[in-house]
Amino acid sequence: MVGAAFAAVPFYSWFCRTTGFGGIPQVSEVAPKHVLDRWVTIRFDSNIAPGLPWSFEPEQNEMRVRIGAVAMAHYKVINEAARTITAQASYNVSPPTVGAYFTKINCFCFTQQTMKPGETREMTVVFYVDPSIVKDSDQDKLNLITLSYTFYRLPDSVSPVAEAAGRTGG
Question: Cis before residue 131, ω within 30 degrees of 0?
Fold first, then answer.
């Protein structure tokens, strides 16, 4: 049972990424072949989990994009701590049924971000809304998608106590 419980987490994560279930966007390396005349507004949401002394804001709160058109959004991130910190962003879209159609080509959320004390960085996400969304009658009235990120601090690879011991020769 314990093994099944541990296996369930990565399987569920894979399932959500593959199907878009729960608002998890898709990932692609190429843009769609055609752009539609239908527009949708993308709203950008940014959050920081407790215990992470970073500032994280979108450079614009929303943008209008044509379905099938590749778009780029920028976020400004500042490490406000006096030490280097590594974090990673989790993401989803709302409404959750849109996850199967919201596709990222490139995103800062794909990798861990390590920032030095006081460092400021611009981070980018490149995305599109898949044109196949127009075949889903449940999405006929869709005109707003929210892309939401939350940065979470990752455990330090070396604890501060071990760092201090290393400097003193102990």
Answer: no
Query: What is the 8-class DSSP label of residue 131?
Result: G
pLDDT digit string (tens) for 54-99? 999 999 999 999 999 999 999 999 999 999 999 999 999 999 999 9
Nearest to 145 by CA among 23, 60, 20, 32: 23
| H-type alpha helices, the chain | 2-19, 160-167
CA 57 to chain centre: 13
The four Cα atoms 152, 122, 47, 29 give a dihedral, to 10 degrees, of -70
On whether the CB atoms of residues 151 and 47 are closer than 8 A, the answer is yes
Cα 128 from Cα 32, distance rounded (Å):
8
CA distance 135 to 140: 9
| Domains along the sequence of the chain with CATH | 2-154 (2.60.370.10)
Cβ atoms of residues 112 and 86 within 8 Å = yes
